[in-house]
Amino acid sequence: MLSKRIIPCLDIKDGRTVKGVNFIGLRDAGDPVDLAELYSKEGADELVFLDITATHEKRKTLLDLVTRVAERINIPFTVGGGISEIDDAYALLKAGADKISINSAAVKRPELINELNTHFGAQFVVVAIDAKKTEDGWKVFLRGGRDRTELNLFEWAKEVEERGAGEILFTSMNHDGTKSGFANEELARLSESLNIPIIASGGAGTMEHFKDTFIEGKSDAALAASIFHFKEISIPDLKGYLKQEKIPIRL
Amino acid sequence: MKIVLIDYGAGNVQSVKYALNRLGIEPSLTKDHNEIKSADKVIFPGVGSAKAAMEQLKASGLDELIPTLIQPVLGICVGMQLMCKYSEEGNVKCLGIIDSEVKKFKPGLKIPHMGWNNISDLKSPLFQGLPTEHQVYFVHSYYVPLNEYTIATTDYSNDFSAAIKKDNFYAVQFHAEKSGDIGEQILEKFLAL
């Protein structure tokens, strides 16, 4: 049986791992390659690296980091941040990334999803969607929640699938950083209406939250950052708990 | 021991290379026919679509060479699918080493089949000595049905071939190079054949 996946996310700035609370107030949580190896050994199923600086000058630093990660760890990993054209994706593929994640670039130019699919296949393309519940329903936000778009979360997710994404990483801005659980109602709706895997992100605080998102949220994978970085929950403990709760999981 | 990784423009060869490096092996990445023929072991990776990959193989004449190889060959992911005779992905004729078709998962399932899944009914030295809990990492939308060459089985709505073997040709649908320590053990077993 296909296992539910646990994915630590490493936010990267200038080659270091950071994680903010509600995306502001960054704290340093260590060296990305060391952390990646630790998570891999502890039983993480995949890793996500989000480069939150992603300025042009820093691109080389990121590619070097991706290569160092690919050399050392033996599980799949996704790299996101600052990818706006095929060449960016190709450089990351060559450096050793298994998948890339795009967010704003897909909203600005949705054809990019089709192009990435054609060049590299759906398995390489993760589309990250940040959304917030507003008076007008769930709207897609950009730049870490600073810019509101008029896109509806569910319509955009459908379009993303149709254009050829292999996976959707959905972050609820209402839940992110709150440690009060994932946006399970919306996740379940996404999961039931789409035929690609959905990764839940934003809101993990306890081990029960993971169980809930796999059952109520029907999520295929769950992503979290600070609770792993600051050792509030250890991956072996989490997986042991999920196994006990009869969630299909890799030990 | 000379290990060749076939580099024909349709594989994440880098990941496989790094996995071999972790095992202390420095493979040669090439599409040169003589170099491939003279290798002790050949690894044939592949990602992306079967049709695009077949076109790449044809462009370098590898579609003729690969079926004639006599040393152990390991196909990975699309590399395994290309060893079959035909793929529904782009309706393309493949290498025909294994007498099987490659089919698309049925509608209603989440595609790609992505993530860690069990392999069972293990029938090859490739899997000797694996621990009881052994999951490996899959990413694919097409599958090889069970057939007389199946040496490992995985269930995703229906049972399919997680690995196949015919004569000197071995192939795995999962990404052994990304399947943690288990994947590395399987690669080591192949290298020890």
User: What is the terminal separation of chain A in angstroms?
Assistant: 13 Å
Would you tell me which CATH topology of chain A applies?
A: TIM Barrel
Q: How many distinct folded domains of chain A?
A: 1
CATH architecture of chain B: 3-Layer(aba) Sandwich
Helix content of chain A: 25-40%
CATH superfamily of chain A: Aldolase class I
By CATH, the topology of chain B is Rossmann fold
Poorly predicted tracts of residues of chain A: 20-28
Give the number of DSSP strands of chain B. 13
Helix content of chain B: 10-25%
Supply Rg of chain A. Answer: 17 Å
Structural domains of chain B: how many = 1
Do you know the CATH architecture of chain A? Alpha-Beta Barrel
Give me the number of helical elements of chain B: 6
Written account of the structure:
The complex is a heterodimer of chains A (251) and B (193). By secondary structure, chain A is an alpha/beta fold. Chain A is 37% helix and 27% strand. In chain A, strands 1-4-5-6-7-10-11-12 form an 8-stranded parallel β-barrel, surrounded by 7 helices. In chain A, helix 1 (32-42) packs parallel to helix 2. The longest helix of chain A has 14 residues, at 59-72. Chain A is globular and about 45 Å long. Mean pLDDT of chain A is 91; it is low at 20-28. Chain B is 24% helix and 32% strand. Chain B has helices at 13-22, 33-37, 50-59, 62-65, 78-82, 180-191; strands at 3-6, 28-30, 41-44, 73-76, 84-87, 92-93, 98-104, 113-118, 135-140, 142-143, 150-156, 158-166, 169-172. The interface between A and B is medium-sized, with 32 and 38 residues.
Please specify the SSE layout and strand pairing:
The complex is a heterodimer of chains A (251) and B (193).
Chain A: E1 5-13, E2 16-21, E3 24-28, H1 32-42, E4 47-51, H2 59-72, E5 77-80, H3 86-95, E6 99-102, H4 104-108, H5 111-120, E7 125-134, E8 137-142, E9 147-152, H6 153-163, E10 167-172, H7 184-193, E11 198-201, H8 207-215, E12 221-224, H9 226-229, H10 235-244
Parallel strand pairs in A: 1-4, 1-12, 4-5, 5-6, 6-7, 7-10, 10-11, 11-12
Antiparallel strand pairs in A: 1-2, 2-3, 7-8, 8-9
Helix pairs in contact in A: 1-2
Chain B: E1 3-6, H1 13-22, E2 28-30, H2 33-37, E3 41-44, H3 50-59, H4 62-65, E4 73-76, H5 78-82, E5 84-87, E6 92-93, E7 98-104, E8 113-118, E9 135-140, E10 142-143, E11 150-156, E12 158-166, E13 169-172, H6 180-191
Parallel strand pairs in B: 1-2, 1-3, 3-4, 4-13, 5-7
Antiparallel strand pairs in B: 5-6, 7-10, 8-9, 11-12, 12-13
